[in-house]
Amino acid sequence: MQTKIRAMLFVEENDTEWNDFTMMEFLNGYSEKDAIYDSL
Q1: For residue 18, what are the contacts with CB-CB under 8 A and spacing of at least 6?
Q2: In the chain, which end has fewer C-beta atoms inside a 10 angstrom radius, N or C?
Q3: What ranges in 1-40 are assigned the alpha helix state H?
């Protein structure tokens, strides 16, 4: 039997450290090979 769990994360809007972290993680996943899609 599997149990499903839902979680909610509340982050203050002025949390710049969180914003910086998520932006860096997003950019770390971006590859130069993906640049081909920038011109679409």
Answers
A1: 11
A2: N
A3: 16-28
CA 29, 33, 35, 37 torsion-angle sign: negative
pTM of the model: 0.41
In the block, tokens 């149990």 appear at 3
Contact 37/30 with Cβ under 8 angstroms?
no
9-38 confidence digits (pLDDT tens) = 887 777 788 888 988 888 888 788 878 888
| CA–CA separation, 7 and 26 (whole Å) | 21
